[in-house]
Design goal:
The relative contact order is 0.27. The protein folds into two domains: about 30 residues; about 180 residues, Sandwich (Jelly Rolls). Strand 5 and strand 6 form a beta hairpin. The protein is built from two helices and 14 strands, in the order H-E-E-E-E-E-E-E-E-E-E-E-E-H-E-E. With about 220 residues, it is an alpha+beta fold. The strands form two sheets. Strands 1, 2, 4, 8, 10, 13 and 14 form a seven-stranded antiparallel β-sheet that branches. Strands 3, 5, 6, 7, 9, 11 and 12 form a seven-stranded antiparallel β-sheet that branches. Keywords: Signal.
C-alpha cells in the first residue's frame, strides 16, 4: 500500500474516532428547551402561623406532599415561605440555617428515597417571605406521584428554634409527616388530621400543618 493511501486511512480512522467521542459527549448533555413554567404546591399567599425546630430533636423534619397534578417536566426551583416573628431583636440577630429536602413518594404513600444528593442549606434574609432555591443543575424530573418537600432546623436552640417556616390550614385532609419527633426511631410518622376535628383553634393548628412550599416546574 502506498504511503499516501496509508496516510489517508489514518486520517479517516482519526476522524471516525473523534466523531464517536463527540457523540458520547452529546449523550451526557441534557437538552432543556425553553418551556412554560408552572408553580405547584401551596396556593395560599399568606401564612397562618410559623413553625420552628426543636433543640431536643435536632434531626426533626417536617414533610408535605406536593402532587404533580398530571404535569410533566423538570423541577427548576423550590420555594419556601419564611414566617418572620417581627420582634425588635430579630432585626439585629443573624438568622439560623434552614435545610430543605425533596423525597420521592414510596409504595405506601410516605416520604421515600431522597431526590437530592444532599440537603439544600440557606440562611433566609430579613423581610423576604418566599425564598427560592435553584436546583436546575440536578436536571430533576417531576415524578408522576409528585414529591415530598421537607425542612429541618440544624441550629435550633432553646432560645431560638427559627427560622420559622410558614404554615397554613388551607387543606384539612392533606397528609402531613414528621420525622424523628417524639421518638428516637428514624421513621416518618403521618400526623392524623382527623384528631383535630371538633377541637379548638389552638389544637387544630397542631395538626393542620400545611407546610408552605412550592415547586417551579418547566412543563413539557
Amino acid at each position: 500500500m502506498k504511503s499516501g493511501s496509508i496516510l489517508l486511512l489514518l486520517l479517516l480512522l482519526i476522524s471516525l474516532s473523534s466523531l464517536a467521542q463527540s457523540q458520547v459527549k452529546l449523550k451526557e448533555v441534557v437538552v432543556r428547551p425553553e418551556l412554560r413554567k408552572e408553580v405547584l404546591g401551596t396556593k395560599q399567599k399568606k401564612a397562618d402561623y410559623g413553625h420552628g425546630g426543636s433543640k431536643e430533636y435536632p434531626h426533626y423534619q417536617t414533610a408535605y406532599h406536593i402532587p404533580a397534578n398530571g404535569q410533566q417536566g423538570f423541577i427548576n426551583r423550590i420555594g419556601v415561605y419564611i414566617y418572620h416573628k417581627r420582634s425588635f431583636p430579630d432585626l439585629f440577630s443573624k438568622p439560623n440555617k434552614l435545610q430543605v429536602y425533596l423525597y420521592a413518594v414510596d409504595s405506601t404513600g410516605q416520604p421515600g428515597a431522597p431526590l437530592l444528593p444532599q440537603p439544600l442549606v440557606f440562611r433566609p434574609k430579613n423581610n423576604t417571605y418566599w425564598h427560592w432555591l435553584d436546583i436546575s443543575e440536578y436536571n430533576l424530573q417531576l415524578p408522576a406521584q409528585g414529591v415530598f418537600a421537607a425542612v429541618s432546623w440544624p441550629q435550633a436552640t432553646k432560645l431560638d428554634s427559627g427560622p420559622y417556616v410558614g404554615m397554613t390550614n388551607e387543606c384539612d385532609t392533606c397528609p402531613f409527616y414528621v420525622y424523628r419527633f417524639m421518638t428516637d426511631d428514624p421513621v416518618w410518622i403521618e400526623v392524623d388530621q382527623s384528631e383535630s376535628q371538633g377541637k379548638s383553634r389552638s389544637k387544630e393548628d397542631k395538626f393542620n400543618q400545611n407546610l408552605m412550599v412550592r415547586l417551579e416546574v418547566s412543563i413539557k
